[in-house]
Amino acid sequence: MDTAEHDVKFAWARFYEVFASALLTWRNRRDELVKGIHLIAADVDGMSHLQDKPAKGEAFPLKDICPFTTMGLFNRSLTDTNRKIIAARLANLLGVNEPVPDSFAGIPLLNNQKSWFFSYERSRDPDDIERLWEMFSQAMTFADNQNTNSADFTSAYDIASAVMNVGWNLTMGLYWARPWFYPTLDSQSQYYIQKVLNIKILKNGEKGRCSGQSYLSIMQALNKAFTQPNYPVHSFPELSLSAWNTDLSQSKDEVENRTWKASLLNKIKALCLKKESPYFTASELKENYLDVFKAERPESKTVTSSIYFYLQKLRNDDELKFLESGNYEYLNFEKNESQTITEETVEESAPPPKLTHAPYAISHLIREGCFLEKAKIQLTLQRLIDKKNLILQGPPGTGKTWLARRLAYCLMGEQAPERISAVQFHPNLSYEDFIRGWRPGKEGRLTLIDGPFVNAIKTAINNPAAKYVVIIEEINRGNPAQIFGETLTLMEADKRTPTEALALSYSENPDEKIYIPENLYIIGTMNIADRSLALLDLALRRRFAFIDLKPAFNDAWKNWVNHKFAIDLDLLAIIEFRLTALNEMLAKDITLGPQFCIGHSYVTPATGQQINEAQAWYEQVVDTEICPLLAEYWFDAPNKVDEARKVLLAE
Fold it and tell me: Is residue 448 part of a domain?
């Protein structure tokens, strides 16, 4: 199992997989399934959309349902509380014992106005729902049995993709059922895959979407890319979460596309409401709204042709059905519908939820366990703001990594982990890993893949109002000058403008140049006790501010540990005395020095750790963490290790 599968953020995946497996067993019990769903809908808010519409007559309760629409009942734009209630009730109906997840991180949602994977009775083929069940069955078989031939899956995919109202949501439904196996290609994920990951989505299938074979090719290309250590994401849930947490700027054409579709659809809707009928003609549309369209776009000379172009787009999106020359049916027509369609809701999937972040300031940092004086924290933060590049250096155990992330939050003024990129430098890391390089892509061909630093640069450029931070762990374990390459020049605070842009060693096109925006900051950490590492390149040093961190065995440390873990202050005073004595020995040792002191992190329990016997806990830390480190320091003087142990344990 991949490491990501153990990530608590994706604990929901197990529930979804078990739910999907149980749901498949109801394929031939659909009358019972639909009856149970309607009983739940009568008790729970957020399920009022289960009314079907015939060609003539009044709406009636849905009589059949596909598996994707069933899972979509708790994957719409609802409150998390409502989603959990609906999921729990459906799980009980299906006999699922897996607990409902607490978090839905990385799960794309349906647009509430497009929550069915099939159309109303008046427009759908009698076999459409059965085709979707077959797709669901083939998808489960293909995902759960590695030796299954892909031809059955791709055939079922192409057939299901032709069902009216399915759209790209088909990939979302596959992702819900088997999130570690199938990628979602909702609109946000498509932008992320193509703009950030540089993987092209071939749209050679039904209505301008990808075919079953193209979908598998994308899946294979992503899985291959996930094996790269410094790739931005390493699983489909990570990809989906990153896509939804990334505010990707849209091109002028993309903005125009959404604006036109929303505007046209609102006018079609108004026309149909006026006629009290879902049927209209292009002539009626122009007669009523051509002047309005022209007034909205006074500089455009192609309004009439654009109307016909976007009528075709709306047909591809299953919003309209073409009947005969100039005649259309508005498929989602409802007589009492008054909600305006926006540029966000015109898409099949729901827009990403607006992220809310808890505020974060120096006071929060201190409360969480930073034992530096407030003035030192303020100085550190100011140097980061001014220099834009900062290195925290100090002996082991001084909390460099812990502090780096929280300094980033202080800089941002809020806890926004999605705006932090963390990278570990090591001897084998290269420019091609960190900046950009050639990697095997789809069908074995080499493809230029952006590394985490270029990804961070692009994201920051796209969102100039927000601050972004790249944290580089153990920056001196690699060869920073070689890893950064020409971007080393661009790191300087006074060169962070488009006018200073340079070409990368590997460019996507001859005219491409890149610069580091002023809203992207770099925080490195450096363990100065590691004798196997060379000193940093002087050119690199000139571009960073350096902050020394020292062991903090002080009143702030004692009071915080006492308050959080109920360790007696007298024992903490003894620990302080003994560690201070040891550090004096290390600092005075001619073969070592102050950089080899032992930091306070060694004797600061981890958040949530239970300390029942504080004395025993301290002795365990000495024997299993501190003494092994001292044995490395004094590898040729074991008597010094024994002497130090006696100091620490007062033997």
Answer: yes
Residues spanned by the domain of 39: 3-226
Do 612 and 514 share a structural domain?
Answer: no
Using one digit for the tens of pLDDT, what is the confidence trace for 25-51? 999 999 999 999 999 999 998 898 899
Contact (CB, 8 A) for 13 and 237 = yes
Question: Does 339 fall in a domain?
Answer: no
Of 225, 237, 228, which is closest to residue 197 (Cα–Cα)?
Answer: 225
Mean residue pLDDT across the chain: 89
CB 295 within 8 A of CB 287: no
Same-domain status, 280 and 389: no
Backbone angles phi, psi at 99, to 5 degrees: -65, 145
Residue 181 token pair: 């196996």
Tell me if 355 is assigned to some domain.
Answer: no
Same domain as 601, residue 527? no
Task: Give the containing element (helix H, strand E) for 651.
Answer: none
Confidence (pLDDT) at 349: 66
Residues 540 and 580 reside in one and the same domain: no
- Does 451 have pLDDT greater than 50? yes
Report the amino acid identity of residue 170.
L
Which of residues 648 and 196 earns the better pLDDT score? Answer: 648
Look up the CATH number of the domain holding residue 268: 1.10.10.10
Query: b vs e for 62-90, b when ≥16 Cβ sit within 10 Å of the residue's Cβ?
Result: bebbbbbbbbbbbbbbbeeeebbbbbbbb
Structure letter (DSSP) for residue 505: S
- The token pair that represents 14 in the structure block: 């197990």
Are 169 and 313 part of one and the same domain? no
One domain for residues 410 and 296? no
Residue 313, CA distances (Å) to 91, 207, 356 in order: 38, 9, 34
Instruction: Give the span between the Cα atoms of 137 and 20, in whole angstroms.
Output: 10
The whole model's pTM is what?
0.64
Can you tell me the mean pLDDT for 137-162? 93
Residues 44 and 181 in one domain: yes
Count of beta carbons in the 10 Å neighbourhood of residue 102: 11
The answer to whether the beta carbons of residues 602 and 397 sit under 8 Å apart is yes
Q: In which region does residue 486 sit, left (phi positive, over 0), alpha (psi from -120 to 50) or beta (all else)?
A: alpha
Residue type present at position 302 = T
Residue 5 reports pLDDT greater than 60: no
Domain total in the chain: 4
- Measure the CA–CA gap between 567 and 559, rounded to whole angstroms: 9
Whole-angstrom Cα distance, residue 598 to residue 536? 23
* CA-based nearest residue to 193, from 157, 143, 246, 150: 246
Say if 347 falls within a structural domain.
no
**Can you read off the two tokens belonging to residue 36?**
């149970």
Q: Which residues pair with 389 in a beta bridge?
A: 522
Rg, the chain, Cα only: 30
- Look-up: residue for tokens 């629409």? 69
Task: Using the predicted structure, report yes or no on whether residue 258 has a pLDDT greater than 70.
Answer: yes
- How do 520-527 and 389-394 pair as beta strands? parallel
Cβ–Cβ under 8 Å, residues 210 and 185: yes
- Using CA atoms, how far residue 318 sits from 172, 185, 311, in Å, is 17, 17, 11
- What values do phi and psi take at 459, rounded to 5? -65, -45
Task: Please say whether the beta carbons of 521 and 408 come within 8 A.
Answer: yes
Do 382 and 501 reside in the same domain of the chain? yes
Share of the chain above pLDDT 90, in %: 64
What CATH number did the domain enclosing 428 receive? 3.40.50.300
For CA atoms 296, 297, 301, 305, the dihedral sign is negative
CA distances for 337 relative to 168, 270, 332, angstroms: 24, 10, 10
